[in-house]
Amino acid sequence: MSSVSKQRSALLGAAFLMATSAIGPGFLTQTATFTEKLLASFGFVILLSILLDIGAQLNIWRIVAVSGKRAQDIANEVFPGAGYFLAALIVMGGLAFNIGNVGGAGLGINVLTGLPEAVGVVLSGAVALAVFLFREAGRVMDRFAQVMGFVMIALTLYVMFRADPPVAAAAAGTFAPDKLDAVAIVTLVGGTVGGYITFAGAHRLLDAGVTGQAALPEVNKSSVSAILIASVMRVVLFLAVLGVVSQGVALDPKNPASTPFAHVAGNVGLMIFGVVIWAASITSVIGAAYTSVSFISGFHPALERHKNRVIIAFIVISTLVMATAGKPAKVLVLVGTLNGLILPVSLGLILCAAHKRKIVGDYKHPLWLTVAGAVVVVAMGVLSAQTLLKYLGG
Description:
The chain has helices at 3-22, 25-38, 42-67, 71-78, 82-113, 117-131, 137-163, 167-175, 182-193, 197-207, 216-245, 259-294, 301-305, 307-325, 332-353, 357-360, 367-393. The protein is an all-alpha fold and 394 residues long.
């Protein structure tokens, strides 16, 4: 494969890795839950979250690419010790999220085969492990994410059309919402670019050697493409759920995202849901493990040399916890919210780095991107504070 082809493959792979890392069981649960609560007005939350996502991700991916350094190393150069603090937040959040991801994969196997969820958890963990046993694990991971991404979107699109959603009402709610919800905004942004997720693609490009100012146009495209891929899935699922709840159908509180699939296509719909949640979960398991380990592997040469083994250990721990500790469904939305709380910290550090010559050299970060990033930091900081107070008070 030529160097140009390898770079294109890495750029596409990074976009899908980030997008499929975002599209996990929590993503499906959050989208369904907030659609039932806000109805057509949830369209506005999605639109606002897309704008915030792009503002955050462009800043992060560009600075990682220009500096040629991982986010934790950048943070340590901004404030000594900040990188270790950020790495701790990312790894703890990634592990918590991954336990839920493995659980979602087990649920998918259960729906498809009838096997106990614990067995599905172990089988899914084994599939994720297999990806990192290949010598070219990065390329295998890229291609797997792409295939699973297309499968998820295509199947959910079919269900959306069968659900016959009120598109006009959804469009109206997107631009003139009847109600707003700060928790929904924080959760969606946190579930798309919070915690480890936005760094998944950025660190993948770094590992693939896509760095420097010359690569920025392609990095920009890959960054925005990642957000749009995740957003397409979000919008399609939103419309599918809206179509069902508009008919007076209540979502199953134990598994809200499964309801539109079952309602429009019966047992076949449930099988489709099984495929979707398994694909969403297994790609998120891979993305969370890869990215979380990328935040600690640079702290010691031995960790860097044995990075794939550390990733495998991360997956094994997540799988064992899920197989023995039970169902994490109640914490999926909360973990997405907590990821949103991390974003002002991580993005704030990146924005500081964008204007430090020792980190970015002679690169001049566009003013509009700095302003857009600052808006995201302030908006997410305020919304996160409101959300935290709401949880503490509730």
